[in-house]
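Customer escalation, tier 2.

The customer says the design service returned an amino acid string that "doesn't look like it belongs to this structure." They asked us to rerun it and document both sides in this ticket. The original structure tokens are below, unchanged.
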């Protein structure tokens, strides 16, 4: 029996779920590829976190191999390791406080380019890098484009000392709150050594107000609502790239 390019036997059946996953990965890669036009020679580039951002980092590394001179500021230890392993020169916020363009993923994007981020647990560094960035480009598969934020649980990074108190306060705002667990079943620990509360609000009708309420809670280090930060979102829908601008 012969095999196709991916080593699968030609007659082997692929489950509908595996097919969906491959389609989503193709869309993630296509969105990441479309973002390359925003990166110019000589720039400092913020490197996002997550599977879509990882596609971007790999594609950017190819550009670097072909002679593009950029320096990257990663938004997580994981993205930094990936970029370094592929030969992308890195810098830090200590050395450089102005980032021309950052390419990052998102868990949800609404029509005003408000985002929920933090599915990968990196939203603290992601938001810091975004805040120092001129042009934040969001790359995502089509499933991330939503009319109203909130189906995806909102991640809130907290100081461990205050975790139980903040959980109660967020529950009082109407959310169902759980402490994120890692693969070992223990609480997930962020790059900055905090825990994450995943907060299920359902539809978030007033994201601006919720962001303010969370910002005002002592012990909340950061939350995954990114408001007024993204300049462009690129969604891949099959073979088409949809570009939204603020
Ligand atoms: C990490 C993030 C990611 O960008 C977000 O979770 C999207 O991830 P993916 O591209 O894997 O779907 O915010 O903190």
């Amino acid at each position: 029996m012969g095999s196709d390019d991916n080593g699968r036997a030609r007659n082997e059946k692929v489950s509908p779920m595996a097919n969906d996953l491959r389609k989503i990965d193709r869309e993630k890669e296509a969105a990441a590829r479309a973002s390359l036009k925003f990166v110019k020679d000589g720039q400092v580039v913020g490197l996002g976190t997550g599977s879509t951002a990882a596609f971007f980092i790999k594609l950017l590394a190819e550009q670097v191999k072909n002679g593009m001179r950029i320096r990257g500021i990663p938004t997580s230890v994981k993205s930094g390791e990936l970029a370094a392993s592929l030969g992308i020169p890195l810098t830090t916020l200590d050395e450089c406080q102005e980032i021309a363009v950052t390419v990052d993923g998102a868990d949800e994007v609404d029509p005003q380019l408000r985002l929920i981020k933090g599915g990968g647990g990196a939203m603290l560094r992601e938001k810091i890098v975004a805040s120092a960035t001129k042009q934040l480009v969001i790359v995502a598969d089509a499933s991330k484009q939503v009319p109203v934020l909130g189906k995806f649980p909102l991640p809130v990074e907290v100081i461990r000392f205050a975790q139980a108190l903040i959980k109660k306060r967020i529950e009082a705002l109407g959310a169902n709150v759980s402490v994120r667990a890692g693969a070992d079943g223990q609480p997930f620990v962020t790059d900055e050594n905090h825990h994450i509360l995943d907060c299920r609000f359902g539809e978030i009708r007033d994201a601006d107000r919720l962001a303010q309420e969370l910002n005002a809670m002592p012990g909340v280090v950061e939350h995954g609502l990114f408001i007024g930060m993204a300049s462009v979102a690129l969604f891949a829908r099959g073979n088409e790239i949809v570009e939204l601008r603020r």
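Tier 2 assessment: The sequence is consistent with the input. The pocket of ribulose-5-phosphate is lined by residues 48-53, 104-107, 117-123, 126 (CB under 6 Å). Residues 154-221 form a domain with the Alpha-Beta Plaits fold (CATH 3.30.70.260). Sent an explanation to the customer and offered a walkthrough call.
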